[in-house]
From TrEMBL:
Domain Thiolase C-terminal, first and last residues per copy: 248-397
Species the sequence originates in: Streptomyces longisporus
InterPro entries noted in UniProt: Thiolase, Thiolase-like, Thiolase_C_2
A Pfam family reported for this protein in Swiss-Prot or TrEMBL: Thiolase_C_1
Protein name in UniProt: Thiolase C-terminal domain-containing protein
The organism's taxonomic lineage, starting at the top: Bacteria, Bacillati, Actinomycetota, Actinomycetes, Kitasatosporales
Length: 397
């Protein structure tokens, strides 16, 4: 199939579908470069869709190279006429998906490939980088860096604020990690699958009070790719379409001192916008894929997306609602960043898992709607920085 150009000036009216998704090799991948993982995921996503590389006229990527996505596009043999390199941390890929959907709907592109790859774990093992991630000391950060609080400490402070204001307990936060691991146990590709208990989470080494090790995401290698296309391409695809129904994005703050409320994440805005634009409500979702670099991120994002009231997240998560097996709202069905894989900016993995669930391709971890059928609606919500940004995408079949 060759690229179609007749629609480049059409009005904003085309429906947009995710037609291909894939992961590269993930977990412990010592013999690859980030470019290799990009290419592996991209080839697999195109094969999943059943479309040729020549169809792709849009490309989005961030996190690799000096001129991302130029370098990655060149490595993949692409010469796109629409590009996006928006980099807002973990929410990058939900924001990029929103931009791509808008561009396709407006006729500025026909098929947009989103791709990511990282060897974060292998680089540390080989001594190519350290375990500490520094965002520098320029701009607004110069006023906080001298106090020495790390990226993890920023999340820990936010969690402690929620505990103080709303009575959230450390056991409730620990239950998020326990349920993520239970879901990972159903995923043969998850990096860690052995069940854990609340007591094991609490007794682990302290990383940043109140977070022990198992409150924090794992470090892995891996890549992912997602292909979005205009509705007229769907008939040529080998997979059933998953439609982009609504998106939202929001940025909150750069400095912690400028964050108005540590208990409210930017998902409160991006989620509201995404649901409104999709014409659906949070309670209609069959599952949620939520960025979970730390247990508190899952809890507060559930509140801000409207799955429970503000301050009610602790009681919501402690009852096992997040599990694939028996949970009312399965969350991070692949095991999430806490157990499955987390090679850096993990937002693209949320979209891959959401699409697989809606297609019914999730194997032992497959979610079912209340009537026993395949899920019809799902949401993926990414968070970036230290709750600095959020992107939310509502998907349906």
């Amino acid at each position: 199939m060759t690229p179609r150009t007749a629609h480049r000036t059409t009005p904003r009216s085309r429906k947009v579908a995710v037609v291909g998704v894939a992961l590269s090799d993930c977990g412990r991948v010592d013999g690859a470069t980030p470019y290799t993982l990009h290419a592996q995921a991209a080839r697999r996503a195109l094969a999943d869709a059943g479309l040729a590389r020549e169809v792709v006229d849009g490309f989005a990527s961030a996190g690799t190279g000096t001129l991302a996505p130029v370098e990655v596009a060149e490595y993949l043999g692409l010469r796109p006429t629409w590009v996006d390199s928006t980099a807002v941390g973990g929410s990058t890929w939900e924001v990029m998906a929103a931009h791509a959907a808008d561009a396709i709907a407006a006729g500025h592109a026909n098929a947009v490939l989103l791709a990511y790859g990282s060897t974060a774990r292998a680089d540390i093992k080989a001594g190519r980088r350290t375990g500490d991630l520094s965002f520098g000391a320029r701009g607004p950060l110069q006023f906080e860096v001298p106090y020495g609080h790390t990226l993890i400490a920023k999340y820990a402070m936010a969690a402690r604020r929620h505990m103080i204001e709303h009575g959230t307990t450390i056991e409730q936060l620990a239950s998020v990690a326990v349920q993520a691991r239970a879901n990972a146990a159903l995923n043969p590709d998850a990096m860690f699958r052995t069940p854990i208990t609340v007591d094991e989470v609490l007794s682990g080494p302290m990383i940043a009070d109140p977070f022990t090790k198992l409150h924090c995401c794992i470090r892995s290698d891996g890549g992912a790719a997602v292909l979005l296309a205009a509705e007229e391409y769907v008939r040529d695809c080998r997979t059933a379409p998953v439609w982009v129904l609504g998106t939202g994005e929001h940025v909150s703050h750069a400095a912690m001192s400028e964050w108005p409320d540590f208990t409210v994440s930017p998902a409160a805005v991006s989620g509201r916008l995404a649901f409104e634009r999709a014409g659906v409500r949070a309670e209609e979702m069959d599952f949620a894929q939520i960025y979970d670099a730390f247990t508190y991120m899952t809890l507060v994002t559930l509140e801000d997306l409207g799955f429970c009231g503000k301050g009610e997240g602790g009681a919501f998560v402690e009852k096992g609602r997040l599990r694939v097996e028996g949970g009312e709202l399965p969350v991070n069905t692949d095991g999430g960043g806490l157990s499955a894989q987390h090679p850096g900016m993990r937002g693209l993995f949320l979209l891959v898992e959401a699409v697989r669930q809606l297609r019914g391709e999730a194997g032992a971890r497959q979610v079912r709607a209340s009537d026993g059928q395949l899920p019809r609606l799902g949401v993926a919500s990414g968070t970036g920085g230290w709750f600095c940004s959020s992107g939310t995408v509502v998907l349906g079949r």
